[in-house]
Design brief:
By secondary structure, the chain is mainly α. The protein is 76% helix and 0% strand. It has one domain. 26% of the residues are buried.
Length: 154
């Protein structure tokens, strides 16, 4: 994994946390946007659906995603050394999970196994905790203090 291309590219832990925030924000906004478009095309957009998605999304964040993002933040901040590869904001297991979830979402959308009206609710519900997790990452990135070793090595 230590190819010549990546040998010289190293970033601080703060940058890794910012990268995670950007990726999770992108995923959350993408799911919310796609879910809203699918809801509107299925004429399923209502205040009840919106409140249900918001409530379930917040619960998912509080009971699952906040813990996941906290584990990622802890893993990043306890990485040995000062500089790391830019793709180390996730571990291998997280990349596999992300690939699986993307594949499952695309497959469900393309095959119409779940009607778009219901799938759109799932998209919106999952977009909310992803977006909130990105805010969690962002707040830690702003609070993150570099060690004196980090500052010397820059």
């Amino acid at each position: 994994m230590d190819s010549k291309f990546f040998r010289g590219i190293r970033v601080s832990k703060k940058v890794l946390i910012c990268e995670a925030a950007i990726i999770w924000m992108f995923a959350g906004i993408m799911l919310l946007t796609r879910g809203k478009m699918m809801l509107e095309s299925a004429q399923g957009f209502s205040i009840i659906n919106t409140c249900s998605c918001l409530g379930c999304g917040i619960l998912f964040y509080l009971y699952l995603f906040s813990k996941i993002s906290s584990k990622h933040i802890h893993r990043i901040t306890t990485l040995p050394g000062d500089r790391h590869y830019p793709f180390q904001f996730f571990n291998f297991k997280s990349y596999l999970m992300m690939a699986g979830m993307i594949t499952m979402g695309i497959t469900l959308r393309k095959t119409l196994i779940i009607p778009l009206e219901y799938l759109s609710l799932i998209y919106c519900t999952m977009g909310i905790p992803l977006f909130l997790s990105s805010l969690h990452f962002s707040s830690h990135a702003f609070k993150f203090r570099q060690t004196s070793e980090d500052l010397v090595n820059q």
